[in-house]
Amino acid sequence: MTSDRFQPPTARNRNLSVKRLWVFSLAIACSSPLLVAPIAYGQDNATVPAVKPAAEGQADLDEAIVKRIGADTPQALEAVSALLESAIKKGLDEENQAFAKKMLGSVLLQRAESLIATFPQAADQRGGLSSRQIAIRSETLEILARAVENDPELVEGFLLIARLHLMPGGEREEIKKATTSAIGLLDDEPKEQSSAYVLRALTNETDEGKLADLDAALKADPDNKEAIQMRASIRLDAGDIEGAIGDLEKVLVEDPTNTAFAGSVIQKLVDRDRVAEARELVTKMLAAKPSEGMYRMRAILHREEGQLDEAMADLDKAIAMAPKDPMTLLQRSGLALERDDLRSAKADFRAAIQVMPLIAEADEGIELRMQIAIAEKRNADAINDAKLLVDRAPDSTFRKLRLATLYTIDERPRKAIEVLTDILAGDPENVGVLRTRGDALLSVGDHKAAIADYESAIAAIGNLDPQEASKRDIDEASGLYNNLAWVLATSPNDDIRNGARALELAEKSAELTNHEAPHILSTLAAAYAEQGDYENARKWSGKAVELAADQEHNQLEQLEEELEKYKQNEPWREKQETEENAIPILDPEDLIDT
C-alpha cells in the first residue's frame, strides 16, 4: 500500500532539477584544464603558464558529468553515482569535491525516487506492507542516508526519509531527526516548512510537543488544513473545547464537504456533553453549503437534546434533497417512532426497504423492525429480532441486556436471568447487570440470590461522593440502595430481613433523591416499620402517598395500602413470584405466512 504522502515531483523539485542540469552542462564546458587556461593571441606555447595537474579523481568526475545528462534509468543513475563516489574517494580539489558531493546527493535522491515509484506494484492482497515493499523501503532509506550525508542541504531527501519512516515499522526518532533537518533548511519556503512541522508533530509523544509544532506550522502557513485539523483534534482530546471549535470552524466552514472529519470531531464534542456546540458547528457548515448528510447529522444532535420537532424538520430537508436515501428514511422512521407516530414510522420503514431491500436484514433495519414490534406490543417478534442481533454481536453487552429486558417485559424472568448470568460470566463486576439480575431474582422469589447480587453491585460502586458523582451514577446507586433495603425490610423470610441494614440503605437512597421519590420514601417507611418505629413509618409513608398523588404515580394504590398497615402498627410483607410465560416463542421460519 503506497502512502498518500508520496506525490509527483513538485514545481519546486522540477525547477531544482533544471538548475542542476544547467550546472552540470556548464561544468562540462569548464572542467577541462585546457579550456579554462587563458591563451593570449600570438602567445608562444613555450610561454603558456604551467597548468596545475588534475586531481586523481578528476577523470571520474568528468565522466560522471557527461553521463549525468539524460541519465534517467536506475542503471544509468547507479553508474553515475558509482563514478562520483570513486572520484570523491580518489580525491578532488576543494571546489570540485564540494561540487561532486552535491551532484552525488542529487543523483542518489533521483535513484531513491525511482525506487519509490515501484512501490505500488510491489503490494500484495494481504494488506500492510508486503515483503517486497519492506525491501524497497530499506534500500531507499540506505540510498537516502548516503544522499543527505553527501549533501546536508538536500531538503527533499530529509522529507522523503521522514515519510518512509511514517509507514508501519518505521522509527519515530528517525522521523524527528529528518524533519528537524528539513525545517532548518526551509526558512525561505514557508509552506513546505509548515508541512515539515506537521510531520514532526506526529513524532511527539506529548500533546504539548505536538501543539508546539502545529502552532509553528500554522505560523509558517496559516492555511495548512492538515495542521488545523490535527490541532483541533488534540485540543478536543485535551478538553480545550473553545480552542478546538475555533480551529474546526476554520476547516469545516471553508470545506463543508469534509464530512468524514466533521463526523469524527462532532462525535467527540457529543462525547464531552457539548451537543450545543456541535450543533452550532453543523449549522455554520449548512449555511456555507447545505447537504443531506449534514442535515442528518444535525437531526441526530437535535434528537440528542430532545428537540424532536427540529430533528424532524432537518430530516424532511434531507429527504427533499435525496428522496430515496434509505438511511435518511430509516432515521426519520426511528424519529417518528419516538414521537409516537407509529403510522409514519412504518411508512418510512417500508419506503427504505423498497429502495434497498437488503436493508431489511442489515443491523439498522432489524433494529428498527424490533422497535416497531415493541411499540405494537408484539413481544415475541421483538424478542426474535433481539436474539438475531445478539447472535450477530455475541460480545455486545448492550444487545444482551436489551434481550433480557424484553424477556422480563414478556414475563419470562428466568430467561432473562440466563442471559444476565451469561454477561456476568465475562464481566462479574458490571453494576447495571448485577442490579438487573437482582431485580429478576427478586421477581421469582429468590431473595437470598437477589441480595447477593445487590451487595456485589454496591461493593463495586464503592464509596459514592454525591458532590463528584454524575447524575447517572447517583440514580444507579440510589436504585440499588432502595431495592436492597426493600427486600431486607419486607421479605416474609425471617432469616432474610435485617431492619438496621435496611434503614441504613433506605436513608442513603432517600438522601440521594432529596426525599422526593415516592417509591424510595415507601422503602424508608418499610425500614422504620421493620425496626418497630411506626411513628416514622407513618410519617414517611404519608409523604410517599402525598407525592405520588401529586405526580399521578402508578403505584399510588399500593402506597395507600402500605400506609393503612402502618396505621395498624403492622409491618409490610411482600414476596413476588412471577410465573414464567409458558407460550412458546416461535422462530420466524416456523410461522405460517397467511
From TrEMBL:
Keywords: Membrane, Repeat, TPR repeat, Transmembrane, Transmembrane helix. The chain crosses the membrane at residues 21-41. The lineage of its organism: Bacteria, Pseudomonadati, Planctomycetota, Planctomycetia, Pirellulales. This is Tetratricopeptide repeat protein. Residues 567-594 are annotated as: Disordered. TPR repeats lie at residues 292-325, 518-551. Residues 567-578 have a biased composition (Basic and acidic residues). PROSITE patterns: TPR (PS50005).
